[in-house]
């Protein structure tokens, strides 16, 4: 593809690009085409003068702008045709009845010039392959042999005028190289307008991104990461708080149990009772404390530990019942602590 000469669109000089892409070189410039257009204008003026320079038709002709060129750089088919005559080339209208009667397969031609709404472009065979050399494309577009007839038919349907270029085109490097090799094109070249639109969109997106970064002091892209970090830290702090509360609760229960134990005389033996219901435990506890109060009223002050003056068997039985109650209370506290710990962990996971 690099060896193919392809002029891209500049202003309205599509006629110049069309001719140079056809001939595969910088053969024509706007100045040369303007010279051909002025020459054609002069020839037309001379023919109109033959009817008399004082005629109404002649004065009207002089007032009209040139039909062969304009200030934008457009050139007529007459200018293109005269420019090709220098190379011995001739243009024939492809869809004219005269040419259609010849029943020539387009694939057997060498090149076409197409025009629609003052835009000119070339379709030419280089080597053994056809290429669309439209100056509005970013590069040559490969056209398969089977697609060529459909491509030309589509142009005709869209209103294009198609001209067959007859004659021997000048030799060019691309034609010689592509005679030996065939090229493949993976992606169709874009229109220059499409490429400019994409570049403009990219610039707009880049500007918007820079504006966002400036508004956030360059840290706008890090907001999401910072939020995730803050959520993780909050969960971590919550877990630490739960652990601290659990430790405080455990210490409070232990102190409470120690306080209960100190209320019992140090020489009281530790015994384990049988499993009793809560109602039986409550009744035995009330009976025990009633006995303690009665004993304290009977014993003189300073009696060690307020120990009741009863037989050892009765005391052991009462203390055994009391310690059984304490054992059950400790077991209940332990179960409660496990339940609290489980609840804290469940709330922490939420």
Automatic annotation (TrEMBL):
InterPro entries: Ataxin-3, Josephin, UIM_dom. It is an enzyme of class 3 (hydrolase). Keywords: Hydrolase, Nucleus, Protease, Repeat, Thiol protease, Transcription, Transcription regulation, Ubl conjugation pathway. Its EC number is 3.4.19.12. The keyword Transcription regulation applies. One of its GO terms (molecular function) is K48-linked deubiquitinase activity. It catalyses: Thiol-dependent hydrolysis of ester, thioester, amide, peptide and isopeptide bonds formed by the C-terminal Gly of ubiquitin (a 76-residue protein attached to proteins as an intracellular targeting signal). GO terms for cellular component: cytosol; endoplasmic reticulum membrane; lysosomal membrane; mitochondrial matrix; mitochondrial membrane; nuclear inclusion body; nucleolus; nucleoplasm. Pfam families: Josephin, SUIM_assoc, UIM. The active site is at residues 14, 119, 134. It is found in: Nucleus. Residues 288-328 are annotated as: Disordered. GO terms for biological process: actin cytoskeleton organization; cellular response to amino acid starvation; cellular response to heat; cellular response to misfolded protein; cytoplasmic translation; exploration behavior; intermediate filament cytoskeleton organization; microtubule cytoskeleton organization. Residues 1-180 form the Josephin domain. Signal peptide: none annotated. The keyword DNA-binding does not apply. It comes from the Eukaryota. PANTHER family: ATAXIN-3-RELATED (PTHR14159:SF0). This is ubiquitinyl hydrolase 1. It comes from Monodon monoceros (Narwhal).
């Amino acid at each position: 593809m690099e060896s193919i000469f392809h002029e891209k669109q500049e202003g309205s000089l599509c006629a110049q690009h069309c001719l140079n892409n056809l001939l595969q070189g910088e053969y024509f410039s706007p100045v040369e085409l303007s010279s051909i257009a002025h020459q054609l204008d002069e020839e037309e003026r001379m023919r109109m003068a033959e009817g008399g320079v004082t005629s109404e038709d002649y004065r009207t002709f002089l007032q009209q702008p040139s039909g062969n060129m304009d200030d934008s750089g457009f050139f007529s088919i007459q200018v293109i045709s005269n420019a090709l005559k220098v190379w011995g080339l001739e243009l024939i209208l492809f869809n004219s009845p005269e040419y259609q009667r010849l029943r020539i397969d387009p694939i057997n031609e060498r090149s076409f010039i197409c025009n629609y709404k003052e835009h000119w472009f070339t379709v030419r065979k280089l080597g053994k392959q056809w290429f669309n050399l439209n100056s509005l494309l970013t590069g040559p577009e490969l056209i398969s042999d089977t697609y060529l007839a459909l491509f030309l038919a589509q142009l005709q349907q869209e209103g294009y005028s198609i001209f067959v270029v007859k004659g021997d085109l000048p030799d060019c490097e691309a034609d010689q190289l592509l005679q030996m090799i065939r090229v493949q094109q993976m992606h169709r070249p874009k229109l220059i307008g499409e490429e400019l639109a994409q570049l403009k969109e990219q610039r707009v997106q880049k500007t918007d991104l820079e504006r966002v970064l400036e508004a956030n002091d360059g840290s706008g892209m890090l907001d999401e990461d910072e939020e995730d970090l803050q959520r993780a830290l909050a969960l971590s702090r919550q877990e630490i708080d739960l652990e601290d509360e659990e430790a405080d609760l455990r210490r409070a229960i232990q102190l409470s149990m120690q306080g209960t134990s100190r209320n019992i005389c140090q020489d009281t033996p530790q015994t384990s009772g049988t499993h009793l219901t809560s109602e039986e435990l409550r009744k035995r506890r009330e009976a025990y404390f009633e006995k303690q109060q009665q004993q304290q009223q009977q014993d003189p002050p300073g009696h060690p530990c307020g120990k009741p003056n009863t037989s050892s068997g009765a005391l052991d039985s009462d203390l055994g019942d009391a310690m059984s109650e304490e054992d059950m209370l400790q077991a209940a506290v332990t179960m409660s602590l496990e339940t609290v710990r489980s609840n804290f962990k469940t709330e922490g996971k939420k």
